[in-house]
């Protein structure tokens, strides 16, 4: 079927119109319409769009493809005929509606069962048929790896389901996060260095070293290291990890935002900082990182006088 | 004011470390007595002798050493006999002696260094003796200094409270069971007027009674002084005011931290504030007095010509900073600010702990740790989300820190049966608990380093003794006017292999000694924080 290579896209009103026109044509010609005919009727529509619309109609089961002689014809599908053949139209519709309501968050199979009052076996069957007709799809949720949620085929899953930008197929992309983390820090660090070198007043100098989350976002976007489109919130999550790394501090400024977008009056400002002290003195002794520290006693199997870590450290 | 009552925080590690330190500084017998007192609390002389199995005279001498060095104290038991107790905290300061000496050197130059060194070596000393010895040592080192110069330095040290007078027994209680040591607040940092300093210890020709000090103290009971010697400042002994040194070291740490956080000018402002409040604050004070901008401005060092506006801005920066070391309290005098020592200590300790976590567990664990620090109580799942670390890895890192007691957990059951499936497990970081744990680790590490050092010395004992003998022979030959070839011959007695080994041994020693000081600096930071916290 042509539906196999269907392209999912947000529906545009244009496309909807096109589909309706084709449907109307099919209605008029009960025998079916040829591709050439549609082309004649809609001269301003290019081939690609037409193919897309037809494919979609096919996939939705609105029209059928019939062969007459050597010619392919599109014919309107008789809805009642299908329902008669399958005999479960109402239940299918009910399930379809429930899934539709769930939107792009998806709905769990148990919840569908509760709301539709169908038996599990029955429901499974329905879901399978709906799935095979590409009306719905099953998406694995990131939160619970075994849990599948259903949603309409043409919907983009919500962030809470996919886990946002940091997940691809339920796998957390820690490398991607690390790279972004480093780049954000580099940006703020450069800003801080520039500010430190400038001959400004202390307060101005500090204010210069601040970068808003939007500045960082722009920088990352221009770098082009991300395949996916990142939102400012995504960058803020990354910046938060930098705070937890102790490399950056954040303040909220009340001045009107430097850009027109975003909530006015509140800007999150980030600034690279250095740790307050040198590494602790105890960490310069092997004991500080010793894995068997708690088993170490004078005269024991592990003892300070026979310690191999000490020996290596002193000979270094 | 008995030492044992204060040292309720003693631990096995501390006691072990104490005995190692005492052994190193004062030898086996003193170690035995001191450890016994620390472990068993205050004891009368006779009981201590019996229990340690030493001769009563040995114990007496050992106690004498300990009292001299301010480690042991004595008091009257309520049944009327005198008993002795030793202070763990005072023993632990033995590690810090090099830092005190260095501190005096940076503040008061070579003379200051030697003064503090002499006093530390002897525990407590008369001013005349100190000045005499230091002058002698300085002139031996090729510097021409006068007694007055050294005396001036010593007076400076006293005036800045780095040295203080040892409490003396009152003039006329020879009949009492023991001398009650007292000193008035007024006399603590007062230098008796006109002390004629004798050159060298044996030189007693120049003697002069001080006019000011002709009160009965000079004739009072002497503790440990040769009967032959009669200096003018007889009975007036000086020792280090350790608290003052600690205050200085803490101030230094704060200034360093500010310079790392903002810059050197800000650090200079803080240093000036610290200097203004220097003598008025005790080590226990949590905040300084309010210090006005104008006062700070006036007291800034001359070479640092910051403008008024700039200083004002630095004050704003300081009070804006998240560590909140400096807080604004009012508008008087161009804005008045206080230094918050508790916040400063906390910031320093948190930073120290963070660096420990960073080094011991790696930066990913550090991120988790800091997340917990900032967010207080978190479930495991939240930790993963905030730190952006995959669930599996985060779990492993978090549990590793939990098993090493860097992270603690709070259970909150939803049902009264405490079933794990219906319980929230919240992870958190308890800074004071972690500090105490780390402090113990520091004590143990320090003991490890010291015992390793003792072990290395024992291993190389033959070699060290040989080299010392050779050096002695060479030196005596040289002083008898022997020529080069003869001394070279003696020096050749140490083979290149041995020389190599000696070299290695020395580098090991210096490494170990250096790391002792570094571990001690961590102990200092943690100790300060815990003391301030236990007060609150």
Give structural notes.
The complex is a heterodimer of chains A (316) and B (536). In chain A, a hairpin with a 7-residue loop joins strand 5 (136-140) and strand 6 (148-152). Chain A has helices at residues 13-28, 35-41, 47-59, 79-86, 89-102, 109-116, 120-132, 159-162, 174-197, 202-209, 213-223, 232-244, 286-289, 308-315; strands at 33-34, 63-68, 71-76, 107-108, 136-140, 148-152, 167-168, 171-172, 211-212, 248-253, 267-272. Chain A has 14 helices and 11 strands. Chain A has a 3-stranded antiparallel β-sheet with strand order 1-3-2. By secondary structure, chain A is of the alpha+beta class. In chain A, helix 9 runs antiparallel to helix 10. With 536 residues, chain B is mainly alpha-helical. Chain B folds into 5 domains: 3-86, Winged helix-like DNA-binding domain superfamily/Winged helix DNA-binding domain (Arc Repressor Mutant, subunit A), CATH 1.10.10; 95-197 and 232-240, Winged helix-like DNA-binding domain superfamily/Winged helix DNA-binding domain (Arc Repressor Mutant, subunit A, Orthogonal Bundle), CATH 1.10.10.10; 243-339, Winged helix-like DNA-binding domain superfamily/Winged helix DNA-binding domain (Arc Repressor Mutant, subunit A), CATH 1.10.10.10; 344-429, Winged helix-like DNA-binding domain superfamily/Winged helix DNA-binding domain (Arc Repressor Mutant, subunit A); 435-535. In chain B, 59% of the residues lie in helices and 8% in strands. Chain B has 21 helices and 11 strands. Chain B has helices at 3-6, 12-26, 28-40, 45-52, 56-68, 88-92, 97-122, 127-140, 147-159, 242-261, 264-276, 293-299, 308-320, 341-361, 363-375, 380-387, 391-403, 431-459, 461-479, 484-491, 496-535; strands at residues 72-76, 82-86, 125-126, 163-165, 237-240, 291-292, 326-330, 336-339, 378-379, 408-413, 423-428. In chain B, helix 2 runs parallel beside helix 18, helix 10 (242-261) packs antiparallel against helix 11 (264-276) and helix 15 (363-375) crosses helix 17. The two termini of chain B are 20 Å apart. The interface between A and B is large, with 44 and 67 residues.
């Amino acid at each position: 079927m042509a539906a196999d290579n269907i392209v999912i896209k947000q529906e545009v009103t244009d496309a909807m119109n096109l589909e309706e026109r084709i449907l109307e044509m099919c209605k008029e010609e009960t025998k079916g319409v040829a591709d050439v005919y549609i082309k004649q009727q809609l001269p301003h529509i290019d081939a690609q769009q037409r193919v897309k619309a037809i494919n979609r109609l096919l996939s939705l089961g609105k029209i059928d493809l019939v062969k007459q002689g050597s010619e392919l014809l599109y014919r309107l599908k008789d809805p009642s005929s299908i329902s008669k053949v399958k005999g479960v139209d109402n239940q299918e519709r009910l399930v379809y509606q429930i899934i539709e309501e769930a939107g792009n968050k998806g709905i769990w199979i148990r919840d569908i069962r509760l709301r539709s009052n169908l038996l599990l076996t029955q429901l499974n069957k329905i879901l399978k048929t709906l799935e095979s007709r590409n009306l719905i799809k099953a998406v694995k949720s990131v939160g619970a790896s075994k849990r599948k949620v259903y949603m309409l085929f043409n919907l983009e899953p919500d962030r809470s389901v996919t886990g946002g930008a940091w997940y691809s197929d339920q796998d957390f992309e820690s490398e991607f996060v690390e790279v972004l983390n480093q780049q954000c820090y580099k940006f703020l660090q450069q800003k801080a260095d520039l500010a430190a070198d400038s001959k400004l007043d202390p307060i101005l100098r500090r204010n210069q070293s601040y970068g808003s989350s939007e500045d960082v976002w722009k920088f990352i976007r221009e770098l082009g290291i991300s395949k996916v489109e990142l939102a400012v919130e995504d960058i803020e999550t990354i910046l938060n990890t930098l705070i937890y790394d102790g490399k950056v501090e954040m303040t909220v400024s009340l001045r009107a935002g430097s850009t027109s977008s975003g909530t006015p009056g509140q800007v999150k400002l980030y600034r690279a900082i250095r740790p307050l002290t040198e590494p602790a003195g105890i960490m310069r002794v092997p004991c500080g990182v010793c894995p068997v520290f708690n088993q170490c006693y004078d005269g024991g199997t592990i003892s300070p006088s026979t310690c191999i870590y000490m020996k290596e450290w002193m000979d270094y | 004011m008995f030492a044992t009552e204060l040292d309720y925080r003693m631990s096995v590690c501390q006691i072990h470390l104490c005995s190692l330190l005492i052994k190193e500084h004062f030898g086996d017998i003193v170690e035995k007595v001191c450890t016994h007192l620390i472990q068993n609390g205050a004891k009368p002389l006779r009981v201590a002798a019996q229990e340690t199995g030493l001769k009563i005279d040995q114990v007496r001498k050992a106690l004498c050493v300990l009292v001299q060095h301010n480690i042991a104290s004595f008091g009257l038991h309520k049944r009327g006999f005198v008993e002795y107790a030793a202070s763990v905290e005072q023993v632990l300061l033995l590690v810090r002696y090099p830092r005190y000496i260095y501190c005096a050197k940076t503040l008061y130059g070579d003379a200051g260094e030697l003064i503090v060194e002499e006093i530390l070596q002897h525990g407590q000393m008369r001013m005349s003796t100190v000045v005499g010895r230091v002058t002698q040592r300085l002139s031996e080192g090729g510097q021409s200094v006068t007694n007055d110069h050294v005396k001036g330095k010593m007076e400076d040290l006293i005036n800045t409270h780095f040295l203080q007078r040892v409490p003396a027994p009152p003039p006329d209680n020879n009949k009492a069971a023991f001398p009650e040591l007292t000193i008035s607040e007024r006399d603590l940092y007062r230098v008796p007027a006109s002390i004629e300093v004798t050159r060298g210890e044996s030189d007693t020709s120049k003697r002069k009674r001080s006019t000011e000090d002709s009160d009965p103290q000079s004739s009072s009971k002497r503790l440990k002084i040769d009967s032959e010697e009669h200096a003018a400042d007889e009975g007036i002994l000086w020792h280090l005011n350790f608290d003052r040194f600690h205050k200085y070291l803490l101030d230094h740490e704060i200034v360093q931290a500010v310079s790392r956080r903002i810059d050197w000018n800000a650090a200079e402002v803080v240093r000036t504030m610290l200097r203004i409040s220097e003598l008025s604050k005790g080590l226990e004070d949590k905040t300084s007095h309010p210090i006005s901008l104008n006062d700070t401005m006036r007291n800034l060092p001359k070479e640092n010509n910051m403008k008024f506006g700039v200083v004002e801005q630095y004050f704003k920066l300081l009070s804006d900073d998240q560590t909140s070391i400096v807080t604004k309290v009012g508008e008087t005098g161009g804005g008045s600010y206080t230094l918050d020592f508790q916040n400063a200590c906390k910031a320093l300790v948190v930073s120290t702990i963070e660096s420990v976590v960073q080094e011991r567990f790696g930066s990913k664990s550090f991120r988790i740790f800091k997340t917990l620090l900032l967010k207080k109580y978190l479930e495991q799942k939240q930790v993963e989300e905030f730190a952006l670390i995959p669930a599996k890895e985060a779990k492993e890192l978090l549990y590793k820190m939990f098993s090493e007691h860097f992270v603690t957990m709070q259970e909150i059951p939803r049902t009264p049966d405490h079933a794990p499936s219906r319980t929230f497990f919240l992870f958190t970081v308890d800074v004071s608990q972690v500090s105490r744990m780390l402090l113990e680790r520091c004590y143990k590490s320090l003991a490890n380093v010291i015992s390793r050092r003792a072990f290395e010395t024992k291993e190389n004992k033959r070699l060290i003794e040989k080299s010392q003998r050779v050096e002695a022979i060479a030196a005596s030959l040289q002083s008898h006017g022997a020529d080069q070839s003869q001394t070279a011959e003696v020096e050749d007695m140490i083979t290149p292999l041995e020389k190599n080994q000696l070299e290695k041994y020395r580098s090991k020693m210096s490494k170990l000694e250096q790391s002792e000081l570094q571990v001690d600096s961590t102990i200092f930071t943690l100790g300060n924080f815990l003391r301030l916290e236990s007060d609150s």
